[in-house]
Amino acid sequence: QQQVKQSPQSLIVQKGGIPIINCAYENTAFDYFPWYQQFPGKGPALLIAIRPDVSEKKEGRFTISFNKSAKQFSLHIMDSQPGDSATYFCAASKENYGQNFVFGPGTRLSVLP
Amino acid sequence: EAGVTQFPSHSVIEKGQTVTLRCDPISGHDNLYWYRRVMGKEIKFLLHFVKESKQDESGMPNNRFLAERTGGTYSTLKVQPAELEDSGVYFCASSPGLGGRSYNEQFFGPGTRLTVL
Q1: For B14-57, what is each residue's pLDDT tens digit?
Q2: How many Cβ atoms sit within 10 Å of the Cβ of residue B6?
Q3: Is residue A1 very low, low, confident or very high in pLDDT (cuts 50, 70, 90)?
Q4: Quick check: B32 contacting A, CB < 8 Å?
């Protein structure tokens, strides 16, 4: 019940394409869903996060869609660029203070020039 | 503001040896977390400190792992004796205390890649 599933494992798109990464969770107590972006040799960095009271959140070229009834959420990257090539992790937690994250296994995205 | 730092960046040891990883969180952050990513799998939670106290150590795999956070500043994670399955990337993260901005955002260090031969 603590698992977060993530797909695909890897993804290759052309510059300008719209990669979509999907995640699903089981624990209905989760109410905070961040996405982290990791470049080689660096630690994961928060990209965007959503709470279940909204169905969509957009920050720049990055959009999270959230389906509470299906317990699924996804990341869309509009007009993808080679600089977006990284590993993306979805995560879930209870939003209470000091909660640890449950991460998905990650998606390695390559955006070709 | 300096980010979360971890030392060493890489460590290669033989099975049975001891290794100590260090994490320096962002100054003033009360919360410190240890996570581990094994062979391309998910990043898994190990434990959580609030200041110097262990708040949750439910993710620690066994008693070969010992974490400390003396004085509520930096933290160490010792593996003794190391086994082959301990290989992976160990991440440290920190977050502000309650009342701080974005208290549920965790800031990650670059990780320590541990290889046990």
Answers
A1: 999 999 999 999 999 999 999 999 988 899 999 999 999 999 99
A2: 22
A3: low
A4: no
Residue B40, pLDDT score: 80
Q: Which of B4, B33, B42 sits opposite A100 (nearest CB)?
A: B33
SS (H, E, C) chain A: CCCEEEECCEEEEECCCCCEEEEEECCCCCCEEEEEEECCCCCCEEEEEECCCCCEEEECCEEEEEECCCCEEEEEECCCCHHHCEEEEEEEECCCCCCCCEECCCEEEEEEC
Residue B1 pLDDT class (50, 70, 90 cuts): low
Q: Is there a contact between B105 and A89 if contact means CB atoms under 8 Å apart? A: no
Cis link prior to A113 (omega < 30° from 0)? no
pLDDT of residue A3 exceeding 80: yes
Answer for the pair A36, A44: CB distance below 8 angstroms, yes or no: yes
Reference B94, options B85, B104, B81, B83; nearest CA is: B104
Q: Does A49 touch chain B (CB under 8 A)?
A: yes
Is B113 part of the contact surface with chain A (CB cutoff 8 Å)?
A: no
Say if residues B33 and B43 touch (Cβ distance below 8 Å).
no
